[in-house]
Amino acid sequence: MAVERIGVVGLGAMGAGIAQVAVEAGFDVVGREVTAELGEAAAGRIVHFLTRKVEKGQRTEDERDAAVARLATTTELDALADCDLVIEAIVEELDAKRELFAQLERLCRPDAILATNTSALSVTEIAAATSSPERVVGMHYFNPAPLMPLVEVVRAELSSDEAVATALDVVERMGKVAVPCHDTPGFVVNRVLIPLLNDCVRVIDEARVTPESLDAAMTNGAGWPMGPCTLLDLVGIDVHVHASEALYEKLREPRMAAPPRLVAMRNAGLLGRKSGRGFYAYD
Ligand SMILES: NC(=O)c1ccc[n+]([C@@H]2O[C@H](COP(=O)([O-])OP(=O)(O)OC[C@H]3O[C@@H](n4cnc5c(N)ncnc54)[C@H](O)[C@@H]3O)[C@@H](O)[C@H]2O)c1
Q1: 152 labelled catalytic
Q2: Which pLDDT does position 1 carry in this prediction?
Q3: How many CB atoms lie within 10 A of CB 267?
């Protein structure tokens, strides 16, 4: 199916970024938030980022205006009824996502594809809340979606070839890099990155190095573009601990469990850039 109209449910950090990428690529987008204020705030952020692109000479004013005109926000889920594809980016809670997918199945056309942006939940379990799991896939964008090229296109147990092919086509039309994979905990990137970052944090205590030294070691000795502590501050300590806990629950591998140092930081509100303090302090 040639997708023209995309619904995005949840316009938080990820949903607003996905909506921006979609309108920039020429899709019509209707974004659903729980309140009009949250929807308007998300639309305002998208206009702001597109305007920054105009200022940097990456877009013309006409292109920005055309992209903004393709975006609508709503609080009514029914407004997504005529979408060809709906991408869900609400809170990372299985029950909330299952309830939403059951609603989406009732109101969307039978041929519409339903995608979840979940990081660590099972796409198959989300799909099982519907009676048409063949049309459900994962489309896992990375944060911030407008800047990060990768989208993991996740095939759940009962996803149809057509649903996967449609998602791959949309990702390509958005100018992103698609990596198709199966529905296993952490998919590809988080399955590798989460235990690796946890190891890095354990090394701070084992080798008695500072976060600065660890970052210097990994950038200068392993060619990482950014040190692990800098990366964790960027991702958010709370987001990383939550993902670690979800992967540990599923895989029971000790390396997946968040190190006590990170749990303590999360509990103390040292969340990284978003709270102004994590491994490092930010203005
Ligand atoms: N933040 C990341 O780094 C990241 C990366 C990849 C994937 N994800 C996944 O993306 C999803 C969203 O994460 P986020 O960081 O954008 O969260 P967020 O808290 O920034 O945004 C979630 C938004 O969804 C809204 N919402 C909740 N229930 C809703 C509903 N029923 N209908 C419409 N809107 C609803 C909330 O008001 C909120 O604005 C999660 O599943 C998360 O695991 C997050």
Answers
A1: yes
A2: 78
A3: 11
